[in-house]
Amino acid sequence: MNKAILLGTTGVAAALAMLAFGFVAGSPQVAKAGTAQTVQTASADTKIDRTEVEGIIRDYLLKNPEVLLEVQEALEAKQKEEQRIASLGVIEKAKSEIFNSTFDGVVGNPKGKVTIVEFYDYNCGFCKRAIDDMQALTKADPELRFVLKEFPILGPDSQKASVVSMAFHLMHPEKYGEFHNALLGGQGRATEAAAIKVALSLGADEAKLREKMKDPTITEAFAKTFDLANKLAITGTPSYVVGNEVVFGALGQEVLAEKIEAAKAAL
After folding, report:
1. 31-50 burial string, b = 16+ CB within 10 Å, else e?
2. Average pLDDT for residues 129-150, to the nearest whole number?
3. Average pLDDT value for the chain
4. What is the mean pLDDT of residues 107-118?
5. Amino acid 48: pLDDT
6. Which of 83, 122, 133, 214 could be stapled to 253 by a disulfide with Cβ–Cβ 3.0 to 4.6 Å?
């Protein structure tokens, strides 16, 4: 985080320097009179000393470093608002794919009034901890529909485990919640073998399961999910879509409950 701030503020400093130099070179000239600074109009043939200008900017920033943080915070707030507005458009255009994809598992009330969508990876440690939030929220709210969208971004094991998961969902949708809880809540890394073991324990036929894993629509579903994630600026797991808002990270049950209530109020 500190490194990110440093890089960001360095970029801001450079931008300020270029802006100030361009301003000074274009019209005003900065001159010192004792401790005060005055601005004089430069004539057409006035030559500006770049080194002097950069020195003035450097001195100012060294004496007022908080300016860099203020500008960085303003920039981040602006970018966040731009992304929020962009996400609204994506959610509006892709409601069916986000909230009602036939490849996504559903827990809670399948006909619930409010839907929360979770993008998750079976090998995501934060997702494993967030499973308790999902269970608590669906238990507390009988009108909550919780959609589980497979987003395997943590390597080949995650991808193979998700193929098994989606194949199992196509074969036994009524048992998908049990499968999801067992694999995500289990010990050790989620792999193809681990996922198949869970599927067999819930009554799947191994030969039929392996055949279903070859279904090309599973790959197509992954492609659509990754495309959605890209448009929503989702790069990590867990991430959620609640109503018209994208929520990033495992923020906890209380925060998600607040987002759910806000979505209800907007209905």
Report:
1. eeeeeeeeeeebeeeeeeee
2. 95
3. 84
4. 94
5. 66
6. 133
